[in-house]
Write a structure and sequence with these properties.
The complex is a heterodimer of chains A (about 475) and B (about 160). Chain A has 19 helices and 13 strands. With about 475 residues, chain A is α/β, with parallel strands linked by helices. Chain A folds into three domains: about 80 residues, no CATH class; about 250 residues, Aldolase class I (TIM Barrel, Alpha-Beta Barrel); about 90 residues, no CATH class. Chain A has an eight-stranded mixed beta sheet. In chain A, strands 1-2-3 form a three-stranded antiparallel beta sheet, with helices on both faces. In chain A, α4 links the parallel β4 and β5. The radius of gyration of chain A is 24 Å and the shape is globular. By secondary structure, chain B is α+β, with helices and mostly antiparallel strands. Chain B has two domains: about 70 residues, Alpha-Beta Plaits; about 60 residues, no CATH class. Chain B has a three-stranded antiparallel beta sheet with strand order 1-3-2, covered by helices on one side. In chain B, α1 packs across α2. The N and C termini of chain B lie far apart (about 60 Å). The chains are: A alpha/beta (about 475), B alpha+beta (about 160). Chains A and B meet through α3 of A and α1, α2, α3 and α6 of B.
C-alpha cells in the first residue's frame, strides 16, 4: 500500500483509529466504525475516493470526512454513548454480607474463613449504616447486590437490609433493585418465596456438567455441589413468577479443566434453558490464588483465547440451528459497537466503574472501590468505612481519584487503539498482577484477551448470517 | 541484536517511540542518537535464536502506522475537542421524577442560599440549550468568536456571524 503521509489532506480526512484485519482496514471514531478494503483506504487517505460513491457517502455520514462532519449529530451521539459520565452517583452497591462459605471452590478469590465463626458476618448495626450510606448516593437507580462468601449463611441480615432499604425508600422514591449471588446450597422454599415477593434477582454459579462443576465447586467436606444447584435451577425455571423478576441467572467460572470441556459447559446452559452464558477468564485475584493454583487451574491468555473461540464458534453453530444461546461478554461489546446508547458496563468503560459506578461494602463496614478491590483486600482500594465516612468522603477521596486516573484510557497507549471505544482497564487487576497502576497495557493479559475478542467479532460479522444473529442478541 | 537507523526528518520522535512501545512485549528495545537527525533502534529478542528479519519489516510498517495515527490525531485535535467539550459541557439533566419535597435535589441545590444569576445561560443543561437549536453557539462561543480560529478556517465560516 502506498500512502504519502505528508500529502494527506488535513481538511478532508477526519479523525479515526485503525487496524488491519485480514484483508480489510477497520476504522473507528468515538461513535462509528467502518471497514475499508486496502484500495479504498488508500483512496480515502489520498483524497481520491469517488464522491458520489457509497463508500464516500458512508464515510461522510459517519463523521470520517472532516468537512462533511455533522458536529451537532456527533456531539449528541458522543453524549449518549458516554452518558455514564454525566450520571450522578454510584448505582451498584455490593454488600459482602458474610465472608463465610460452605464451599471450597478451587479458584476461590474471597478466601473463606472458618465456617463456625460468625464474626465474619455483617451485623445489623453495620447493615443499617451501610444502607444509610447507600442512600446518600444521588443516583436515582440503586441496586443492592448481596455477595459473600455464601450470602445465605447470613440470611437474617439480608432480610433486615431489604426491609430497611424498602422502608427508607418510601420517602426517597428511588428505583430500588436487589440481586443476590448464591451457590443455592442453603436455599429453602420459604427463603425463595421471600425473594420472589421482594423481587430479588437471583444469580448462581453453574460451572458445567456434573464432572466439571463438582471438580471446581466441592463443599467443604468435600462432596460435589452439582446435584443441589442443578436441582434448584430446574425448580426455579418451572416456577411461575412475576415477569419483572428474573427466575434465575447463572455464571460459569472457567478453569483449565472447564476449558477442555467448553462445549459440554455450553450444552449444560442450553439444557437448563439458561440463555445467556458468560465465558469469562479467571481473574487470578485474591489471597488464595498463588502460583501453584495458577499452574494447576489457570491458563495463559493465549490458551484461554483458543478455547473461547472454540466456545464461541459452538454457540454460533447452535444459533444457526435455531437454538437461542448468547455469550454475555460478546453481547456487551456488540452493544457498545452497534447501539446508539452504548453500554455502560462497569468493566468496559473509561474510567471504569470503581467508585464511580459501584462500591463494595465489606461485612465489617469497610468500603472498597469495587468487588474486585475487596477481593484483594489491599488498602489501596479501601476508600472508607460506613461508621467513619459519608458518601462524599468515599467517592471524592484521593485514592478514588487515583483509580479514576488509572482507568482512563486516554492515559495509555489505548488512546491509539481502534478498540478504545469498546474497551476498559481494570486498575485492580493491573495493581494485583503487575504491581503497577500504570503498566504497559499492551503487555497485559486483559488487553490481549479484549483484542482477541474484538478481532473475532469484527471478523465474524463479515458473515451476514452471524451479523444477523449478533444483532438479534442485542435487539 | 538488530539495528535500524531512522531519519528523524522523515519520522517524528513521537512516532518512533510509539512504534517501539508496540514491540516491548517480546523484544528488548533501545533508542540511541546515531548522528545528527538520525536515531538508532536496537532490537533484541526475548526468545533465543529468533530470526529478527521479519520483525525489522514489521517495525518499519508499524512506523508508518504510527506516523499516520499521529498525523490524523494532530489534524483533528480541535474538532475532537469541540465535540467532547460540547457533549460534556452542560450540567446533568435534572431527574424527571415527582419530588414535591425536593428529596432528590443534590446537596448543592438543597443547601444553596444563593439564587444563581445566569444571564448567559451558562448553567443550562445541554438538553436545554439543544432544544433551542443553539448548541453550537452556546457551547463553542469562545471558539466561534475568534474569526481566525482553526474551526472557522476549517468550515470557512465567519466567527462573528456564526
Amino acid at each position: 500500500m502506498s500512502i504519502e503521509i505528508d500529502k494527506i489532506n488535513g481538511n478532508k480526512v477526519g479523525f479515526f483509529r485503525f487496524k488491519k484485519l485480514n484483508d480489510f482496514y477497520l476504522l473507528a471514531n468515538e461513535i462509528f466504525f467502518i471497514k475499508l478494503s486496502e484500495t479504498d483506504f488508500q483512496n480515502f487517505l489520498n483524497g481520491t475516493l469517488d464522491k458520489e460513491g457509497d463508500i464516500y457517502k458512508d464515510l461522510a455520514s459517519k463523521g470520517f470526512i472532516k468537512d462533511k462532519i455533522d458536529v451537532k449529530k456527533l456531539t449528541r451521539l458522543y453524549r449518549t454513548k458516554n452518558n455514564f459520565l454525566l450520571k450522578k452517583g454510584v448505582s451498584l452497591h455490593i454488600i459482602i454480607i458474610t465472608k463465610r462459605c460452605n464451599h471450597l471452590c478451587v479458584y476461590c478469590q474471597a478466601g473463606s474463613p472458618e465456617l463456625q465463626k460468625d464474626i465474619y458476618d455483617m451485623k445489623e448495626d453495620v447493615a443499617q449504616k451501610t444502607v444509610d450510606l447507600i442512600f446518600q448516593s444521588p443516583n436515582k437507580n440503586i441496586t443492592i447486590e448481596f455477595q459473600g462468601g455464601e450470602p445465605l449463611i447470613n440470611f437474617k441480615t439480608i432480610k433486615f437490609i431489604i426491609e430497611y432499604a424498602k422502608e427508607k425508600n418510601k420517602k426517597l422514591n428511588k428505583n430500588l433493585n436487589f440481586s443476590l449471588v448464591t451457590n443455592l446450597s442453603l436455599m429453602t422454599e420459604e427463603i425463595y418465596d421471600y425473594f420472589l415477593e421482594s423481587k430479588v434477582n437471583l444469580c448462581t454459579s453453574l460451572d458445567g456438567p456434573k464432572h466439571v462443576h463438582d471438580k471446581n465447586r466441592p463443599f467443604l467436606n468435600p462432596i460435589g455441589s452439582y446435584e443441589i444447584v442443578s436441582g434448584w435451577i430446574k425448580k426455579m425455571k418451572k416456577k411461575e413468577v412475576d415477569p419483572s423478576v428474573k427466575k434465575i441467572g447463572a455464571l460459569p467460572t472457567l478453569t483449565k479443566y472447564s476449558l477442555e470441556h467448553i462445549k459440554e459447559v455450553i450444552d449444560e446452559y442450553i439444557k437448563y434453558d439458561l440463555r445467556v452464558i458468560h465465558l469469562r477468564q479467571l481473574s487470578f485475584l485474591g489471597n488464595s490464588f498463588g502460583d501453584e493454583k495458577r499452574e494447576e487451574f489457570g491458563y495463559s491468555p493465549e490458551e484461554f483465547i483458543f478455547y473461547w473461540k472454540k466456545g464461541m464458534d459452538y454457540i454460533i453453530e447452535k444459533n444457526k440451528k435455531g437454538i437461542d444461546i448468547r455469550e454475555r461478554g460478546v453481547m456487551i461489546m456488540l452493544e457498545k459497537i452497534f447501539k446508539e446508547q452504548g453500554n455502560a458496563f462497569l468493566d468496559l468503560r473509561s474510567p471504569c466503574g470503581a467508585g464511580t459506578g459501584q462500591l463494595a461494602y465489606f461485612y465489617n463496614g469497610d468500603v472498597y472501590s469495587c468487588d474486585e478491590g475487596r477481593m484483594t483486600g489491599n488498602d489501596l482500594f479501601l476508600l472508607g468505612n460506613v461508621f467513619k465516612n459519608n458518601y462524599e468522603d468515599i467517592t471524592e477521596c484521593p485514592k478514588e481519584k487515583a483509580l479514576i486516573t488509572a482507568s482512563t484510557l486516554e492515559n495509555f497507549s489505548c488512546d491509539e487503539c481502534v478498540y478504545k471505544p469498546y474497551c476498559g482497564i481494570c486498575p485492580v487487576l493491573n495493581y494485583t498482577l503487575y504491581n503497577n497502576l500504570f503498566p504497559n497495557i499492551k503487555m497485559t493479559d486483559r488487553c490481549k484477551l479484549h483484542t482477541a475478542m474484538l478481532d473475532y467479532i469484527f471478523l465474524k460479522i463479515e458473515d451476514r448470517e452471524v451479523l444477523e444473529i449478533f444483532k438479534k442478541w442485542i435487539r | 541484536m538488530e539495528i535500524i537507523t531512522i531519519d528523524t526528518k522523515v519520522y517524528s520522535l513521537r512516532a518512533i517511540f510509539g512504534t517501539a512501545y508496540v514491540f516491548l512485549d517480546n523484544y528488548y528495545i533501545f533508542l540511541d542518537n546515531f548522528e545528527d537527525g538520525k536515531i538508532q533502534v536496537k532490537i533484541k529478542s526475548k526468545k533465543e535464536n529468533e530470526d529478527l528479519e521479519k520483525i525489522i519489516d514489521e517495525f518499519k510498517n508499524e512506523l508508518i502506522n504510527a506516523s499516520l495515527r499521529l498525523k490524523i490525531s494532530e489534524e483533528n485535535k480541535k474538532i475532537r475537542e469541540i465535540i467532547v467539550t460540547s457533549a460534556l459541557y452542560g450540567r446533568v439533566e435534572a431527574p424527571r421524577i415527582n419530588d414535591p419535597k425536593g428529596i432528590c435535589k443534590t446537596w448543592e441545590e438543597s443547601h444553596s442560599q444563593v439564587k444563581i444569576n445566569d444571564p448567559k445561560g451558562i448553567c443550562k443543561t445541554w438538553e436545554e440549550i439543544n432544544s433551542n437549536d443553539n448548541v453550537h453557539k452556546a457551547v463553542n462561543n469562545e471558539i466561534l468568536k475568534e474569526k481566525n480560529s482553526e474551526y472557522c478556517k476549517m468550515f470557512k465560516c465567519d466567527g462573528d456571524k456564526n
